[in-house]
Amino acid sequence: RSKFMSTLWNSYAFYTLYAEIDQFNPADYMTNGKWEPKKHPLESVELTLMDRWILSRLNTTIRTVDESLAAYQIPEAARALDSLVDDLSNWYVRRGRERFWGKGMAGDKEAAFATLYHVLETLCRLIAPFVPFMAESMYQNLVLSTRDDMPESVHLTDFPVCDEKYIRPEMEEQMDALIKAVQLGRACRSAANLKVRQPLTALYVKGAAFSEEYAAQAKDELNVKSVEFITSDASLTDYRLKPQMRTLGPRYGKLLGKIGQALSKMNGTEVVALFSRGDKLTFDVDGSEIVLSKDDVLTEPVQKEGLVSQSQGDLTVALDTRLTDDLIREGFAREVISKLQTMRKDLGFEVTDRISVRVACGEKLAGALKAYEDMIKASVLAVEMDLDGAETGDGSQEWSINGEKAVLTVAKV
Asked: Which residues, at least 6 apart from 24, have a Cβ–Cβ distance to it below 8 Å?
């Protein structure tokens, strides 16, 4: 119930909320009393990468469910539906929320509405044998509330038919690799105790590949400036070097301690590479030449300073967690955006309401907010932002912004 039904219902509720706000009426497809593309057809809207991907996933799932049910493979059909609903809610809808916020109904926003409606309407029929009452409830609201040419129940409609023209296997493969990399990236942030709102320099990916168009999704989702693909762990791993007591003790005796100190200061990656070539390590200690082979040195792999990595199977990702001054300032700005969005919700503002913002804070935070003023205003629908002080009242609240105290005041304009 929580994994499938609630997840699908959340996507359905999201669509109905914004369709009501923008008065999106799927009956605009009607032409001469027939169900034909007219105002928001998939064939004429500007489909994005995410739209094309979810339509491919939808039709692949239709094919899988149809074939599985025909062969009485009920669990396989159910798992395919579960996977699609998870991708729809936790990737397509969540990644595309901002597409529904703009004014008017054209371009990217029109494509988002048309695509999401098409997927949900098709899902009503696809899930009907599995969750009949939920499917009926969605169908009544999505379809019969705006159309009078359709059967009175979802259970009297035709089962969906796979449209092969929408299926793009390579697109699904790349998006699957991207989603897995992002999931590991989130785990890296969690391990480093870094909020997603804090921007970072780079994400390193080993064991997966996707084009720049997909990498842009990863950069936005994980809030990183770049995505870099690597072919080995060498750029992620360093090595801690220690003397092998068993072989070096008899040979160097009292020099063993100083040999250990020298090894601890060396570049472990370079020493390991030297040994892998079959060469020996030579250096001087108190005027004595020290010659070590691979068997004389213990090598312990360690994560490079400033990197946090996670792996699953052959896939490894790492985040560069070192923070520059610019990244810290942007982190302040994104944290303020989050607090302002929370205040909007707590004060009962509509998602389309424009607001004014006043901020009372220290010099460090004020400088960061000034640098990112345009981004903050655009994100919270603010027409003005005053950094000179804050009024008190129902619209004021004190916050800790990454350790910096601030009083934020919002008002509807």
From this structure: 18, 40, 105, 113, 117
